[in-house]
Structures are given as C-alpha cells and as structure tokens.
Amino acid sequence: MATKAEVLDFIRVYADKMAEHRQELTDFDQAIGDGDHGINMSRGFKAVIEKLPTVEDKNIDDILKSVGMTLVSTVGGASGPLYGTAFMKAGAAVKGKEELSNEDVILAFDEAVGGIQFRGKAVQGEKTILDSMIPAINAIKASIAAGKSMTDALVDAEKAAWDGVEYTKTIIATKGRASYLGERSIGHQDPGATSMAYAFQAAKEVAEKAGK
Amino acid sequence: MVGIVVVSHSQKIAEGAVELAKQMAPEARIAAAGGMEDGGIGTDVSKIFAGIEAVQEGDGVVILVDLGSAVMSSEMAIEMLEDDSNVKIIDAPIVEGTIFSSVEASIGSSFDEVVEVLTGCKTYKKF
C-alpha cells in the first residue's frame, strides 16, 4: 500500500538521487552515448520539484501525470519521453485514487513499463531502461504473491534492478545512440538501466521509512 | 498550405535549416522546434507541439527530425493534438527535407504530395 504522501516522498527522494548521481550517470553515458543522461535527468527532476507544490493537493494520478508532463519538456534526451510516458501511464492506471493498494502499485508499474516499451519500441535485452525495470517489477510481483511486505518486495526489486544493470554490461546496445558503437558498448553499464535502478532504490527507502 | 516543423536537438540546426529553406520558399509555413526552452541541447515536447499548432492551417503538417528523442518527442507532441489525422513524422534527411518540403508546400501541393517528395528525398543523389 502507498499513501499520497509516500508517492510525493518517492518523487522527492528520486529527484534527490538524480541530483546526487548526476555526474556518475553522465560518465556512464559519456562512455557509450551522448554524455548527457545525468545532466538531463537532474534538470528534469529539478523542474518536477519546482512544479510539485502546485499539484501536491491533487489526486495521485494528477500528480504522476504532472511529473510526466514536466519531464517530457525539460529532460531533453530520450529519457524525457521514456520516463515521461512511464509517469503518465502510471498516473492513468490509478485514476481517482487517494491511496494505492499493492495491486494498484503493481498495476502502475506494469502500465509504466508498458508505456516505455511502446515509446521506445524496445524489448528486454537491448541494453536499455527495461533491463533493470522488467526484472524489478517481476521481483515485486513474485514477492507480493509470496506474501511478503511491500518493503521486502521493494528490497527484492532493487536487487533485481541492480542485477539487471550488471547484465547490461554483458550485452550489445541495439537501441539509441549506444547502438552506433556496436560491440564496443559491451563492458559498459547502461545509464538508463542505472537511473531506473535508483527509482526502485528510492521506492524501497520510502517504504522502509513508512514501515510498510 | 502544408506546414513544416523542424525538430533537432540543436536550436541552431533547426533554425539554420529553416533559414536555408526560407531563402528558396520565403512564404512557406515552417517552424523551428530545436533545442530546449533555455536553448540547451535536447528536444522538448511542448516546443514541438507549439510548432505544429503554429504552422497547421488544416492542410497538414510534416515533421522533420534528426535522431533519437527527436522522434519520440515528436510522437508525443502528435498524440497531444486534438486532431492528428494529417500530421506525420517523415524519415528524411533534416536539411534537405526541410528545403524540399518547403518548396513543395509553397507551390500549393497537397499533404500527400509533400510526403511523397520527402520520402523520395532520402535517396536523392547529391552528385
């Protein structure tokens, strides 16, 4: 379960992480892309935080949609439409909700990943965001189904996400600018998969703090 | 007249392509939607959306893109339109495409004709 306050907290914690890891994400992107992922994500989430006070009284779906809309106009790189679509789809999945059940949380994640797949026309195994996101969501589902708490499920999800990040070091990029590098992209971790792993880390920290 | 929107990560590339096309087709309806609001490198969905609205007269709009997020951001801008029936992203070289489509649109060609010229532009031989 997640309250609106926790959703807002998640957005703030994740924004802090994007600021904190700005250089690291940029360095990963410099190795195989255009070297702006950390700059773009931190700029986008800085704008999200500036906008947040104007929407924090609204329903969870409006808040998530507003985050998405802000990202698509402020991130600048491919992560703008990708993360933006994810937040908008997650919002649409929980329309009118003041509070999210575990099923709602899973539905929101499912819709978010579906949105990213649709927008990026990608599948798992192409060295993208999906390589940490899909295993993380699968871990949440498996853990909740096994009767674990949301905090424990998110601990499992974060671990699965970082395993996914490690896996991206072993594969060739076939999407985005990293695909121009072909085999030279092997050995480098995907910046998008990395920034997505931080999202599950943020969600886990918020759940831990709330004692869920 | 068919409208044209030029979407690049660089504001200068988008504006430069428009400048070049205007030289040949001064009356063409072209919008440069390059870079971010602050002029930085990137693509911005709201800037593209505003560009489409600015050049749409009802005859359709073609969108030229450079790469990567230019495509995704343009797709999102199209999805936000009330009527997206005659707005299309065309896979063509951005500079040549902007010039060819501007000339074609300014002589009063239909949306389909402009799209056809743009599509052909991909295999146009420079020498």
Protein traits:
heterodimer; A: 212 residues; mainly alpha; Serine Threonine Protein Phosphatase 5, Tetratricopeptide repeat; two-stranded antiparallel ribbon; 9 helices; globular; B: 127 residues; alpha/beta; Rossmann fold; 4-stranded parallel beta sheet; 5 helices; 47% helix
Structure description:
The complex is a heterodimer of chains A (212) and B (127). Chain A has 212 residues and is an all-alpha fold. Chain A has one domain: Serine Threonine Protein Phosphatase 5, Tetratricopeptide repeat (Alpha Horseshoe). Chain A has helices at residues 4-20, 22-32, 37-51, 60-74, 79-93, 102-120, 130-145, 150-168, 191-210, and strands spanning 2-3, 99-100. Chain B has a single domain (3-121), classed as 3-Layer(aba) Sandwich (Rossmann fold). Chain B has a four-stranded parallel β-sheet, sandwiched between helices. Chain B has helices at 11-24, 45-55, 69-79, 94-106, 111-121, and strands spanning 3-7, 29-32, 61-65, 87-90. In chain B, strand 1, helix 1 and strand 2 (29-32) form a beta-alpha-beta unit. Chain B is built from five helices and four strands. Chain B is α/β, with parallel strands linked by helices and 127 residues long. Chain B is globular. Chains A and B meet through helix 4 and helix 5 of A and helix 2 and helix 3 of B.
Give me the secondary-structure topology.
The complex is a heterodimer of chains A (212) and B (127).
Chain A: E1 2-3, H1 4-20, H2 22-32, H3 37-51, H4 60-74, H5 79-93, E2 99-100, H6 102-120, H7 130-145, H8 150-168, H9 191-210
Antiparallel strand pairs in A: 1-2
Helix pairs in contact in A: 1-3, 1-9, 2-3, 2-9, 3-4, 4-5, 5-6, 6-7, 7-8, 7-9, 8-9
Chain B: E1 3-7, H1 11-24, E2 29-32, H2 45-55, E3 61-65, H3 69-79, E4 87-90, H4 94-106, H5 111-121
Parallel strand pairs in B: 1-2, 1-3, 3-4
Helix pairs in contact in B: 1-4, 2-3, 4-5
